[in-house]
Amino acid sequence: MTASAPDFRTRLQDWLPKLVLAPSFAVTILFVYGFIAFTVVLSFTGSKMLPRFDFVGFDNYARLFALPAWHTAIANIAIFATLYITICTAIGLMLAIFLDQKIRGEGVLRPIYLYPMALSFIVTGTAWKWFLDPGIGLQQVMRLWGWETFTFTWIKDADYALYVIVIAAVWQTSGFVMAMFLAGLRGIDNEMLKAAQIDGASNWQLYRRIVIPMLRPAFLSAFVILFHLAIKSYDLVIALTGGGPGRATEMPATFMYSYTFTRNQMGIGASSAVIMLMTIAAIMVPYLYAELKERK
Amino acid sequence: MFPRPIQQASPAAQWLYTIALPVALVIWLFPLLGVALTSLRPASDLAQGNYFGMPSGIAWENYVYIFTETPIGQYMLNSLWVTIPTVIGAVGLSLMTGFALAVYGFKGNILVFFLFVAGNFVPFQILMVPVRDLTLQLGMYDTWYGLALFHIAFQTGFCTLFMRNFIKALPFELIEAARVEGVTEWRIFWYIVLPLMRPAIAALSVLVFTFIWNDFFWATVLTQGVDSQPITAGLSSLNGQWIAQWHLVSAGSIVAALPPVLMFFLMQKHFIAGLTLGAVK
To answer: Do the Cβ atoms of B25 and A140 come within 8 Å?
Structure first.
């Protein structure tokens, strides 16, 4: 009895990490991976309003890619993601470098750039919808101030509404990108920069040749985060334009929701979700694999 | 000295600086300040087209109106009911999973960690139908606990990543030393690791609070009525009713934005630390 007691305790200790992990692990396997499998299966069935299990092969995918609305959604997300990622990275880097110049008031400025991160996209959407509404926002102010011909009607214009979403999204997240770059900048070894400075390198050269190349990891994580935020973007579109005017700002996320719940084409909705997942996985899996291998 | 202080830069650069910074500040603050000002404008001002001029008075009645005539107070309570259990649940669970993954090198450790982290990037759309079906079947559709439960399930991945990375960065010798002394594992967790985790717990709680408070997608998928809809979904449907009543829309937005923005400014240090530590999110 006395001999087996410590044995039991040691064994319990060995099992402890697994016991502790088990509930969360089970939840993740079931609710994330199990549910992905469920939706993948759905995408091969003729489900309409409710899930059904009559298999139709790749029918849903064929129909999905024949839909003009899906083509619009894909074209929109491509434009949106490209502009959003590029502009956010550029502004984030610029703000980070500006704030890194040992200026007074950094403590005041940094949170101001970052606070939109704490806002709901619904609130951001409302704020920008109001600000860019031709009758009451920016256009109105400019006209009141005497610039009578000033016109800014992008939000109502099918050709430009998408760019309004880019503006609002950039406003919301570039502070976050700034914080990431700022952390990267602070992590750079100062000795090397001092040495280069003594050798007569100008500030511009320092940034171009040393600082920016050394920020590569920050660029990579910024890209990955912005990319997945872009694909997921749903709230902002709903709050800002509701996918309109017409279908001008339809995105895969809004397409998926409306085909599944409003139009009762669950099979097609599921197949569009699978395409979204595969797009993200194509970027994410290699990135995470490389990251984890390195850290091991 | 690197970077050179701005005072040593060329006059042109200094000029650019003094112009660029205020311009950027105005752009960053204007949308929300504009909304805040509009929320205090009397409806009559807006009717006369006075959107940006001097308001004819401060209209606290806009706020009184939305709290007395609309269920916005209920929406706020619903949000709290969803957010607080999620923060406690997700942070509590991830403390344990993070500890297990950071301290023990068992077989499959990296694979489990990978599954947690990768789950984080999954677009919610692909989970939407099964989650909704399951909540309906369990009778948890349109309840705060149904929403909170799934939030916990989907936040665990991010929180685990966060906690695991934080614990990994702690001096491992502390744990080793305690083991040599014969301290049991759970006491190591409770008396040695947990006290060191305080900053991480604070940072993660702030982050999860804002994520969940601001969630809109799951709120629309899993709740419907005034009794359970959180503020984001509630505000969205109120906005549909208040067409062109911008003083009400603005007041509603300010009310919805206040808790996370206050949280952000009060816990700023933790928020920034959290965002950059969990940068893989």
So the answer is: no
Closest CA to B79 of A125, A120, A127, A80: A120
Give the residue from B65, B81, B115 where a domain finishes: B65
Residue B162 corresponds to which amino acid? Answer: F
CATH number, domain at B259?
1.10.3720.10
Give the residue numbers spanning the domain of A82: 67-295
DSSP symbol at B6: G
Which pLDDT value is given to residue A296?
53
* Exposed / middle / buried, residue A282 (Cβ in 10 Å: 0-12, 13-18, 19+): exposed
Tokens representing B255 are 């009310």
Please name the residue ranges forming H helices in chain B: 11-39, 43-47, 61-69, 72-103, 109-119, 125-137, 144-168, 172-180, 185-187, 194-196, 198-213, 217-222, 231-241, 246-266, 268-277
- Which of B16, B35, B65 is where one domain is finished? B65
**pLDDT tens-place string over residues B243-264:** 778 888 888 899 999 999 988 8
Contacts of B115 in chain A (CB under 8 A): 25, 28-29, 33
Same domain, B24 and B144: no
Confidence band of B275 (pLDDT split at 50, 70, 90): confident
Tell me the C-alpha distance between B270 and B268, whole Å.
Answer: 5
β-sheet bridge partners, residue A55:
A45
pLDDT tens digits for range A97-109: 888 877 777 778 8
pLDDT at B1 over 50: no
CB B260 within 8 A of CB B55: no
Average pLDDT over every residue of A40-49 = 87
What pLDDT was estimated at residue A273? 92
The answer to whether residues B84 and B161 belong to one domain is yes
For B22, the domain range is 6-65
**Which residues of A fall within a CB distance of 8 Å from B3?**
100-102, 203
Burial code (b: 16+ CB inside 10 Å, e: under 16) for B50-89 equals ebbeebeeebeebbebbeeebbbebbbebbebbbebbbeb
Chain A nearest-CA residue for B91: A24
List the one residue out of B231, B150, B128, B122 whose CA is nearest residue A122. B231
Domain assignment of residue B1, yes or no: no
Model pLDDT, residue B7? 59
- Set of chain A residues whose Cβ sits within 8 Å of the Cβ of B273: none
The predicted complex's ipTM stands at: 0.83
Question: Would B244 be classed as within a structural domain?
Answer: yes
C-alpha distances in Å from residue A287, one per residue of A80, A183, B235: 22, 20, 37
Separation between Cα atoms, residue A152 and residue A132, nearest integer Å:
8
pLDDT at residue A75 in the model: 92
Do residue B153 and residue A27 have CB atoms under 8 angstroms apart? yes
* Residue of A48, A164, A74, A25 whose CA lies nearest to B116: A25
- Which CATH number covers residue A284? 1.10.3720.10
Q: What is the residue type of A52?
A: R
